[in-house]
Design goal:
This protein has about 240 residues and is an all-alpha fold. The protein has eleven helices and two strands; from the N terminus they run αααββαααααααα. Strand 1 and strand 2 form a beta hairpin. The relative contact order is 0.09.
Amino acid sequence: MTSIPLKKNPIKRTRLYEEVVERIQQLIHSGEIRPGDSLPSERELMEIYGVGRPAIREALLTLQKAGFVSVSGGGRTRVIEPTAEHIVESLSTAARHWLAYPDGVKNFQAARKFFECGLVRYAAKYATEDDLQVLMRALEVNKNAMNNSKMFAQTDVDFHYVLAVIPKNTIFRGIHAAISKWLIDQRHIALSSPGENKIAYRAHEEIAEAIISRNADLAENLMERHLDQVAEVYWEITNRRESF
């Protein structure tokens, strides 16, 4: 029997603050500490876990960044409910790294298309009358902003956000916020093209009409066409700028 050669790979000791983070998270997951509860003071936590102040402060900062706790003006640390937005924020550094790769933007564009085509299918099938009213209000605001590029860009995001809200899934709202943030350069560049506001609004209008008609296939096809057109304009402008 031959032994498999393995490279030297010593096991690293867990840093103290990571152990503190894990233990506090265990208390939160088990329900011993609930959202709204205050954690003990730094000094008390030092005594409880037998570590120094730097480890406690690093642990609390890590928990705060992850959305598990918030620090009030009085310095008291309170447990909060993590949100999708906190997850997105924690991934932002990695996202910026991915976007720097040659196909980074294209990969995010593909992810957005996959996600939003699913959203419009859901909306066409399951949106309530209240949902449709909110969608039409967002469309009207989008229309009224066509002559103001900055306002139009924001109302563009808001229209797509309504689609992410309809399923009433907080993760979907977080994904929308993430994609909107990570592809912000695409939006600004694409909408800088003359007449693009009008084209984008018309696409939104057609998508909304398909959703109201409960035509999921048409809504999906229109969303795919809309996002493909936005991506095409973005790459045309980007490639033209890079050629100079």
